[in-house]
Amino acid sequence: MRILHTSDWHVGRRIRGRDRSDEHRAVLAEIAGVADTQQVDLTLVAGDLFDSSAPTPVAEEIAWRALLALAEVSPVVVIAGNHDSPARLDAVAPLLAMGRVTVVGTPRSPGDGGVVFIDSLGTKVALLPFVSQRGIVRAADIMGLDPDQHSGKYQERMQLLVAALTEEMTPETVNLLVGHLTVFGAETGGGERHAHTVFDYAVPSAVFPGHLSYVALGHLHRQQKIPHAGSVWYAGSPLQLDFGEVEDRKGILVVEASPGLPAQVTTIPLSAGRRLITIKGTLDQILARADEAGDAHVRVELAEKASVGLADTVREAIPGTVEVVLEEAETTRKAHHARRTLTPGDAFHRYLEEKGVADPAVERLFAELLDEASA
Ligand SMILES: [Mn+2]
Q1: pTM, rounded to two decimals
Q2: Ligand 1 midpoint to CA 83 (Å)
């Protein structure tokens, strides 16, 4: 069977205030086009449909229509990411189910929708929507796990959740898991660069048992294979979402899977979104390079002293400019704070120490909030 894996659409995301709805419409149509030409049997969307837990009606229209377009080709399975409202997704789930789109907002036990069996494909799909540090105990309760086992850390509990979801899977079926989480050692993209490298708020890839044919992950925006004896991948976001992602090639994955074998994965690049680029130099140098910008969203780093109208001159020459910063101010800022080299967790730790109120519990809460707010 053939599976399309995508994630982190972040419909509704703007770039420095500028609307990207047309790009989202275009890239999601491109994905539906791939589903059609490749004749996929199943599409998996591994979380962060939306950029916000309260998306605008326009964002909702784009996402629901995209899911229904994919469902015209084959069944679609969607889980909530940390940006999605689990309750909102669960609320529309019965309607989307009528269009053969299965949506799960909150973790469920295997018998209550946590594992979807697609009879016609001989396929089992375990669903693991985003679970926060705060939500993990509740998720474990839902799974009916022994309360004594709740004493472990986040990653131990996550391991139990994955085990509970996958224990009934046998070699006769194609066994899939869709999750929205951070795996240790994965490379982060730009937007979420600092957020997940600290604390124990990630899982080792070893939590995924070897009898899974394929693990479809979302959360990190860079497309990548995770070191594992099986086949574990992040699909990455279909658009470059922030300037930290300018080097990322965006795409989706098409996966060939058969019972009892690790899946074969093909990367399919997407081209519908506009590029994000950074141009640096003096005003003259930048004006001379204006044509390079094309239709990209542009961040301009100017090697000039601050003066009235400077940013307007740049914006006039390069209409795609979404941000103008002065290199000098940027350098001073970096030298002063060296903040770019600190993770938010480290910066917060330093701040607490400076204030004489260091407290690991507060730092853990900070890490949890950061994780929920980022990626
Ligand atoms: Mn995301």
Answers
A1: 0.87
A2: 7
